[in-house]
Design brief:
single chain, about 200 residues, mainly alpha, Arc Repressor Mutant, subunit A, Tetracycline Repressor, domain 2, 2 domains, 9 helices
């Protein structure tokens, strides 16, 4: 029961922080939206900052457990088509998973206020993607699928436009299907340019 209440608090905090930002989220409104009194909230979290930090911890674990990271890599594709399939699976997940979308919005809003949010935004929007795809591309080069090149630069060149299109989906959800088509077309173009 306590874990369920804690999870409900974090779920509602994600909703409110991703819509209103940290400063715009009020503990009283948060507790009322859950049908709790403030004392019930404080049995689980001693402050708004504690909710914030627990939420960021949960988001990191959720994202890395489902999407991947430099520490939790997906397998190196065995074919060039496997790279397209991997890319589209990751793009579909990050665009359509409601928790990830809210997390990305939260990080976008709060990256200028909070150092940890800034660091996570940099990791999830840029360096983490490069770090994840660098060994994948190196492995594909070792398998003779991609021509030899600097795998880190290829990873940066590959992930930056995809990340930009994912952010477009956050701002303009009506463009999601077009963005997914562009991601697939870009992945196939990349393969044509860099295949061995």
């Amino acid at each position: 029961m306590a874990k369920d209440t804690r999870d409900r608090i974090l779920g509602m905090a994600l909703d409110q922080f991703s819509q209103n930002g940290y400063d715009g989220t009020n503990i009283r409104a948060l507790t009322e939206s859950l049908g709790l009194v403030k004392s019930a909230m404080y049995r689980h979290f001693e402050s708004k900052e504690a909710i914030w930090n627990a939420l960021l911890d949960e988001l990191v674990a959720y994202y890395e457990g489902r999407f991947g990271s430099a520490e939790h890599l997906p397998p190196v594709p065995d074919t060039l088509e496997g790279l397209v399939a991997l890319t589209m699976g990751l793009a579909e997940f990050t665009i359509h998973d409601e928790r990830v979308v809210k997390s990305r919005k939260l990080l976008t809003i709060e990256q200028f206020r909070d150092d940890r949010a800034r660091d996570l935004a940099t990791k999830h929007f840029l360096t983490g993607l490069t770090g994840m795809f660098t060994p994948l591309f190196a492995g594909m080069m070792d398998k003779g699928l991609l021509r030899r090149d600097d795998p880190e630069m290829l990873a940066f060149a590959y992930t930056a436009p995809i990340s930009a299109l994912i952010h477009l989906c956050d701002r303009e959800p009506e463009k999601t299907e077009d963005a997914l088509r562009q991601i697939e077309a870009f992945s196939r173009h990349f393969i044509q340019v860099y295949k061995a």
